[in-house]
Amino acid sequence: MIEMHEVTKAFGPKQVLNGINLTIKKGQSLVVIGGSGSGKSVTLKCILGIVHPDSGSIKVDGQEVTGLSARERKKVLSKFGMLFQSAALFDSLPVWQNVAFGLIQGKGMKKAEAKEIAIEKLRRVGLTPDVGDLSPAELSGGMQKRVGLARAIATEPEIIFFDEPTTGLDPIMADVINDLIVECVTDLGATTLSITHDMASARKIADRITMIYEGRMIWEGDKKEIDVSGNDYVDQFIHGRAHGPIQMQLLKP
Q1: Minimal CA–CA distance to 7: which of 37, 70, 51, 69?
Q2: What is the pLDDT of residues 136-150, one digit of tens each?
Q3: DSSP character for 193?
Q4: Is the backbone of residue 241 left (phi > 0), alpha (psi -120 to 50) or beta?
Q5: How many angstroms separate the CA atoms of 139 and 144, rounded?
Q6: Where are the domains of the chain?
Q7: Per the confidence metrics, is the pTM higher than 0.70?
């Protein structure tokens, strides 16, 4: 469903992606792990077309998406749903309109019909219909994440991206979100790409896990293989060790 071949991207002198190779099969859940600044978010943005790679190939469902016109890209993006790191809800819209945004703006659906679907999706993520009339500011962080998930699945997309889905949540709410992600994705049969540094989340939502370091995918395998990867970088990361081959750039006074 998604293929990246030797994708590179630099911002000025900073080389962020150094030849990314990535394949996600239809219906598969792939989680990309890696530290801050390793290239996770830029990889995702390149697939979406938010960032244009300097070189390499990106295919979505067999179609090359680098260099598409605005109209062609809009058609490709209709296949996607996304849960953003901070939920990224529109403060000026009530919750149900946030969930229905893709239906109304993207598919031209009438508001009454879109609201019915939005309320159903809110139920799907464990929120009652009355939540639909609240503003995002009235919701807790966990509820905002649920609304973000409801919006991500509202159009029943073929592909869903999850950007740090559990950031800012306590361990119990994070596990609730992980369970909801697994259930919703299974129901849709969607292909998913997630980026996270939360290993509990990665272990729960992934079929396969890959690790990015300095703009390259340095390991990939089934999630059951992560603890016996034989890769020192992976081992240091999943156990959160300060000492190892990954050296953090620290500013000294």
Answers
A1: 51
A2: 999 998 899 999 999
A3: E
A4: beta
A5: 6
A6: 1-77+191-253
A7: yes
